[in-house]
């Protein structure tokens, strides 16, 4: 059997639909019919029963499928493995993430990446908010999905994968919890949790500012090291914290309220990696991540699909 015959036969056996088979194989529907007819003449028996409504494998067709499919899939895997090795994609890739929904995105992309590049091994780990670029620079991870802004000369910022409305997490008993939205100016009337550790000043100012846009001081509360500390501190009434709106789905619990900002820019998450250690594996993961996000409607819609 020729390669195209095998592909068309196995695809039709899976789809049981000539139109979908033609679309997946990248040929016309007539070519699918011609190829199947040629194959059945060579074998001397019908492989499919078909009429205007249904397509079904015959007993001989099912026997043929069971016989050739495992071998064909193995050939595909070995070709993919050899291709990946030739491109330098095989080996270990360590990917970091900063929060629950970025972790979900990374894990879904990683599953596809592993299937597409059988010679790779992926390790996924969370990066703490108090040292967002430390693991990258130490070589503990190869790339990560993290919050913008990033202004680091030694790091390359890749595509934005997630863009979410900014919200404020606060105790449900707080007076602003009953509002439909809040303003950046409202932060002057609250205590804002901040971040400590090896965090760039411009990042802190963007996510936990000391002043409102008109210059009013914002009371500063306890500094956090781990993201999980935010939930406990807010529940205890120690302060409030800007978060992604997706946090309501991932971190929502009794006693917490998530109120959207009406005048704050979105929180965006992008891939980032050390410029000096960019590899074929990193580039392949970045490209697949971009394709995955685009297939799910783009950065503003992807969280709703994962």
UniProtKB/TrEMBL annotation:
UniProt cross-references to CDD domains, sorted A to Z: PBP2_LTTR_aromatics_like (cd08414)
One MF annotation (Gene Ontology) recorded for this entry: DNA-binding transcription factor activity
PROSITE patterns: HTH_LYSR
Annotated keywords: DNA-binding, Transcription, Transcription regulation
One Gene Ontology cellular component: protein-DNA complex
Domain of life according to the entry: Bacteria
Record flagged with keyword Ubl conjugation: no
Tagged with keyword rRNA-binding: no
Domain HTH lysR-type residues, every copy: 1-58
InterPro entries in the record: LysR_HTH_N, LysR_subst-bd, WH-like_DNA-bd_sf, WH_DNA-bd_sf
Similarity annotation: Belongs to the LysR transcriptional regulatory family.
Name the record gives this protein: LysR family transcriptional regulator
């Amino acid at each position: 059997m020729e390669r195209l015959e095998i592909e068309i036969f196995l695809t039709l056996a899976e789809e049981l639909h000539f139109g979908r088979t033609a679309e997946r194989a990248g040929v016309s529907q007539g070519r699918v019919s011609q190829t199947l007819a040629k194959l059945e003449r060579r074998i001397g028996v019908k492989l499919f029963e078909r009429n205007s409504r249904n397509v079904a494998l015959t007993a001989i067709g099912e026997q043929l499928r069971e016989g050739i499919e495992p071998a064909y899939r193995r050939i595909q895997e070995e070709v993919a493995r050899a291709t990946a090795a030739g491109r330098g994609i095989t080996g270990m890739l360590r990917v970091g993430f900063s929060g629950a929904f970025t972790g979900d995105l990374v894990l879904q992309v990683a599953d596809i990446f592993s299937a597409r590049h059988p010679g790779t091994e992926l390790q996924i780990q969370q990066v703490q908010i108090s040292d967002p670029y430390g693991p990258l620079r130490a070589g503990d991870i190869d790339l990560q999905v993290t919050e913008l802004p990033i202004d680091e000369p030694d790091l390359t910022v890749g595509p934005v994968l997630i863009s979410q409305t900014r919200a404020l997490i606060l105790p449900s008993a707080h007076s602003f919890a009953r509002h439909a939205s809040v303003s950046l100016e409202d932060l002057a009337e609250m205590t804002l949790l901040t971040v400590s550790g090896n965090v760039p000043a411009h990042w802190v100012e963007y996510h936990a500012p000391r002043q409102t846009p008109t210059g009013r001081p914002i009371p500063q509360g306890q500094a956090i090291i781990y993201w999980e500390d935010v939930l406990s501190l807010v529940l205890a009434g120690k302060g409030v914290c800007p978060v992604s709106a997706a946090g309501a789905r991932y971190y929502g619990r009794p006693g917490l309220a998530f109120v959207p900002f009406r005048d704050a820019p979105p929180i965006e998450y992008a891939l980032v990696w050390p410029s000096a250690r960019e590899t074929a594996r990193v580039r392949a993961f970045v490209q697949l991540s971009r394709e995955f996000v685009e297939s799910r409607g783009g950065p503003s819609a992807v969280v709703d699909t994962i």
